[in-house]
């Protein structure tokens, strides 16, 4: 491909996927808005305590989808159809097994789980209800993620975008209908969110029923090597999503001790807005993954570098625009979710928004670089980046900085973590690029 064609592909895949991911992130943001309007601060607290479990479900689906999609795209570019179908089949089996575990947790353990996440008597029933519905719909969430990733890698990013937007818009509409005209409370919010992937799968299904897809379920053995390959390539996506949930749990615990339920409700505004911003970066990275994997399989180093450069430039420009919007719009943004006009909630959220989101520009670099490594079949640096930003640095920094600066320290933990990981990631990139140039195998045939 020529440089101009490469840019056109980047714009097509990244823009479509960013739009789709923004829509997908609105699953929870819509719940946040409608719950805040209908149920106030306690509803927001219950929702924020349950959201980490959604991150685990979504992350598991993305792990299999992104990991399997990466391997599928590489084998497809090398015209190894049999191996490509084995990848999809093994990924589908992984999805069924993990989703089944989530489903059983929803049926039998929603109550103890929401207690474990920090719910007190004031929010226990709402939290348990929301959590149970989300877990029961886990098979739909994970199947949707699997199909979205494989269809995107199959050369149909427009369809993936349409499905993500269709599912998300249905969630917004159903949220309103269930919670206000039908007065179904927090169950209505959870039920609307659970129906969204069902509608998305419905939009995707004609592509499969008309046999336009090049990936198929085949009768084959479940191969530990393929499962491990999918897991390894998809692990950074899992860590990115799961770490969001774990960070929310840790921050909730710290903030409960510092500012009670009102502080957790304020953090709910920040955390859910963060999901949307991170979704933009995830959209860019997921958009470039099929291109990079395909170019890697074909041995086209020049185009990989071009795609990476376009992705980094776009992510940085978006980050600057996002931060300026949040900094100058912190008060009205917080007010949208503060239906009770609680001055304490407003003050905490305003301060948190302005400090927390200074980490955007570093987060975008880390997310794009992580997917670059996995897309070019070099997952170890991606694992290091994901683990550092997801667990190893941010959790101890949250405790340390909160001890030093109270709520101010909590908000600073995210940008400090992303900055440190950004510096480490840059070192890994320079080392990896230099080593592959010397060995002459970047990128190359498997």
Structural overview:
Residues 442-446 have low confidence and may be disordered. Helix 6 packs antiparallel against helix 7, helix 8 packs across helix 11 and helix 8 (224-298) crosses helix 14 (394-439). The chain is 87% helix and 0% strand. It has helices at 3-77, 81-108, 110-116, 124-136, 138-153, 157-179, 185-209, 224-298, 301-328, 330-336, 343-356, 360-375, 379-392, 394-439. By secondary structure, the chain is mostly helical. It contains 14 helices and no strands.
Which range best describes the helical content: under 10%, 10-25%, 25-40%, 40-55%, 55-70% or over 70%? over 70%
User: Low-confidence spans: pLDDT under 50, at least 5 residues?
Assistant: 442-446
Number of helices: 14
Give the overall shape.
globular
Over the alpha carbons, how many angstroms does the gyration radius reach? 21 Å
Mean pLDDT across residues: 86
Number of strands: 0
Structural class estimated from helices and strands:
mainly alpha
What does the main sheet amount to? none
């Amino acid at each position: 491909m020529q440089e101009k064609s490469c840019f056109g592909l980047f714009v097509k895949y990244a823009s479509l996927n960013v739009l789709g991911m923004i829509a997908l992130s609105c699953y929870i943001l819509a719940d946040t808005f409608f719950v805040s309007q209908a149920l106030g601060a306690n509803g927001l607290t219950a929702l924020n305590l349950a959201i980490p479990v959604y991150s685990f479900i979504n992350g598991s689906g993305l792990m299999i989808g992104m990991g399997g999609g990466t391997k599928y795209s590489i084998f497809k570019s090398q015209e190894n159809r049999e191996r490509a179908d084995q990848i999809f089949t093994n990924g589908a089996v992984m999805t069924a097994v993990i989703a089944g575990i989530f489903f059983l947790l929803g049926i039998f353990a929603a109550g103890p789980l929401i207690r474990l996440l920090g719910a007190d008597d004031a929010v226990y029933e709402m939290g348990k209800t929301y959590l149970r519905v989300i877990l029961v719909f886990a098979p739909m969430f994970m199947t949707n993620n699997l199909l979205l990733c494989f269809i995107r890698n199959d050369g149909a990013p427009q369809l993936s975008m349409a499905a993500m937007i269709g599912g998300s818009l249905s969630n917004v509409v159903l949220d309103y209908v269930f919670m206000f005209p039908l007065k179904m409370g927090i169950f209505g919010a959870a039920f609307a969110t659970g129906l969204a992937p069902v509608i998305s799968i419905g939009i995707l299904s004609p592509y499969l029923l008309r046999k336009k897809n090049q990936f198929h379920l085949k009768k084959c053995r479940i191969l530990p090597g393929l499962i491990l390959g999918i897991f390894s390539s998809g692990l950074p996506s899992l860590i990115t999503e799961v770490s969001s949930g774990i960070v929310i749990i840790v921050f909730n615990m710290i903030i409960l001790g510092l500012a009670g339920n009102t502080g957790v409700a304020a953090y709910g505004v920040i955390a859910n807005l963060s999901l949307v911003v991170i979704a933009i970066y995830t959209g860019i990275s997921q958009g470039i993954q099929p291109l990079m994997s395909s170019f890697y399989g074909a041995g086209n180093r020049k185009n990989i570098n071009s795609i990476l450069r376009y992705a980094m430039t776009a992510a940085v420009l978006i980050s600057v625009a996002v931060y300026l919007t949040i900094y100058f719009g912190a008060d009205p943004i917080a007010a949208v979710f503060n239906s009770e006009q609680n001055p304490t909630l407003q003050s905490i959220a305003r301060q948190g928004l302005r400090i927390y989101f200074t980490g955007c520009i570093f987060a975008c670099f880390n997310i794009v670089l992580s997917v670059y490594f996995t897309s070019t079949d070099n997952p170890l640096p991606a694992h290091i980046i994901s683990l550092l930003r997801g667990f190893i640095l941010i959790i101890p920094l949250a405790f340390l900085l909160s001890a030093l600066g109270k709520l101010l320290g909590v908000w600073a933990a995210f940008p400090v973590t992303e900055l440190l990981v950004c510096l480490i990631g840059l070192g890994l990139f320079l080392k990896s690029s230099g080593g592959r140039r010397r060995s002459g195998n970047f990128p190359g045939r498997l």
